[in-house]
Amino acid sequence: MILVNVLGVLLIALIVWWFWLYQPQATDLGASELTIVVENGTYQPARIQVPANQSVVLSFLRKDSSPCSETVLFPALKLSETLPLNKVKNITLPAMQEGEYDFHCQMQMYRGRLLVV
Amino acid sequence: MAKAVRHQDKHGKADAEKQRCHDGMEQQQELLIQGASCAGCVKKIEAALQSVPGVTHAEMNFAQRTVSVEGAVDASILIKAIEQAGYGAQTQSADSDDDALEEKEKADRAYYKRLMLEMTIALGLGVPLMIYGLLIGEMTVTTTTERIAWLLVGLLTLGVMLFSGKHFYVGAWQSCKNHSANMDTLIALGTGTAWLYSMVVVFFPQVVPDMARHVYFEATAMIIGLIDLGLALELKARGRTSEAIKRLIGLQPKTARVIRDGNDMDIPIEQVRLHDLVRVRPGEKVPVDGEVIEGHTAIDESMLTGEPMPVEKAEQDEVVAGTINKTGSIVFKATRVGKDTALAQIIGMVKRAQNSKPPIGRLADVIAAYFVPVIMMIAIVSALAWLNFGPEPAVAFAVVSATTVLIIACPCALGLATPMSVMVGVGKAAEAGVLIRNGEALQTSSKITAMILDKTGTITLGAPKVTDIVTVDGVDEAGVLQQVASLESGSEHPLALAVVESAKERGIKPLAVTGFNAIAGHGVEAVVEGKNLLFGNEKLMKDQGVALDDFVDKAQQLAAEAKTPMYFAVDGRLAALIAVADPIKEDSIAAIKRLQHNGIRVVMLTGDNRATAKAVAEKAGIKEFFAEVLPEDKSKKVQELQMQGEVVGMTGDGINDAPALAMANVGFAIGTGTDVAIESADITLMRGSLHGLADAIAVSKATLRNIKQNLFGAFIYNIAGVPVAAGLLYPFFGLLLSPVIAGAAMAFSSLTVVTNANRLRLFKTREH
User: Fold this and answer.
1) CA B602 to CA B295: how far, in whole Å?
2) ipTM of this complex
């Protein structure tokens, strides 16, 4: 029983670390050839590094028919866009200051983050 | 003062945002490139575009062979520059809203069909299993025969999981790899736990206590089936929430009849170019915005403005895309096409507003961001608690409680609560001719306690009109109007224009005039049909020796009603008294009453003198007014009310009221679909009627109420559902939730939210 309890506590610690504490590597937006695929409840890649103080274009390709994947919102930028199915949609973001900016679907089930450096 | 500064900050940001959106709309273009095969081509094309005067930035996406160009330069010039660099280019065949909508509906239909099939398969297994469990036998594993039978059922369930629930498992895995958790994570964990536990019971019954040898295959199949059903029904209900946008898009015709090289030709709407000549016949829709250059007609603009009366259009008048030509045939010059038409901008604005969140919605955002991992931890704690302190069979209780917690906790209803209501609310307002710019304006409108109304053009028509013609006994009114209109037909004075306009409205034609003489500051004189006519103020009459008798009293009475009286004499004898005033709009009084009835303090603001202001305010039923206010001081009056603790709405007719509109908590612009009005106010009333204000506030209050109901509903599923699922009520009432019930609750929580949001579609603005 003690083993089960220890396992349970370890599992909780793992959840905290995996979902909150661990900082996965961000994908660099690079030479604007990066396409963010919207599929299976996720944005891939979901952490994207973009340069500060300059306008950037993000390309989204939605492959998921679920209606909640249809809209992508950038709350801090007061921006929301509709993503067509199986077509690339370019979204131009204004120049941003350094920091982290979330983007997500209407239900907040699809979540991503921009790391502006 | 601090409050005022805060308002300024808020609006400063909002203005920057408005400007950015506006700039973005005008200056960003996307072109398709042909012939680019290497990174060198990218540099060459970008350099060619950057050398075009007016281009501020050009960036090519090599992977997609598109180039994004910023700067107010015509696409044809950009294409030429690219061609000179040795490549081909064309404008993006930007899908029309209509096509995009059609495609979306097609995709939605396919998705719905798939979900229904998945649901049928899952429930096809789950329902008989559940009925068996409830009516015939216990779902336990004791004998070898039972083990074999349940193994087969377990494999069938696995098939259901792979066919009907694959998207949950793949989504959960992808999401987990990305260090995030979502709805799929909870469903996959919940159903996976139930199935794995059941398979352990089937394969290794000896490791599980006798009492806990229970299988939960029916729960797995039912949960997957019910959630698929919930998603399908939600998809259907969602489709209805965007009715307003569909209707707006439906207003756009697909083709236009343009005149090129002297010939009429029907072409797709996307191919209409600026300055094209477009012919519209009676009964047809106006395809793009333009200026009439030939013909005369009446146009029904009700779909855009809510105004039921057709509007007369002649040369130099503007026509707007989407409106219906009623009577005559016209030719107009296209002044705005494609995404620049007023209708396209309105559709864009409604779409943007529908996707923006009011401050109340951000609460749900914060919760949703942390919810799933927290629920996973609660499920573990609950399972441990049952294992350590629960009655026998503790293992079975632990599995049931953990599974149920995971399933019931899905926060997607929480995420939907706000956007669904905003979508319907903003659409509802748009149908009433009220364009709400964003979620924040929608929410703040519901809290307005004081409404400032600009007088001219807002409460009144903004154009002087003849209000009274008092004739001397025996003198014919129409005859007087004809003579005065003839006399004034050469004058450009606003009061003269009002008389001429009044005669035109009654179909009276002017007569020939000779000996016209304008007496500065007094009036005019001339000879018409051999009679000496004199039209002007009291002083002019006295100077000319015309006896005014008791008409002086009448004139004073008219002046007290904020009207300007003028005398008319024929051959030295008084014939009539004509009063001109800027009349109060027909429905202003009723609309103001509606506002006051809803507890809103209505205040009038005007640059006019006190007497005129008092007369207009009294007539409009307004008790408070600010008179003789200079345009630059209007915003100070807004501040004054804010200092008194009021949440202030300011209504004006556009550019000169802009600072006051920005200072107010919510700025309402009276507009007729022009860019400035659409871009400068928090809320734009497309028709001139002040009923739009009461409508906007009513819609805003109804939407906020709807959002609160949705949030309450969504929270109840989670806040009440999770502790019950964890078994908190078990020690007191012996109550433990079944995973199947949790699955149904989760599936229908989103449906409840979307259905409740759709209820808002039935809201009638005028009844409030």
Assistant:
1) 43
2) 0.84
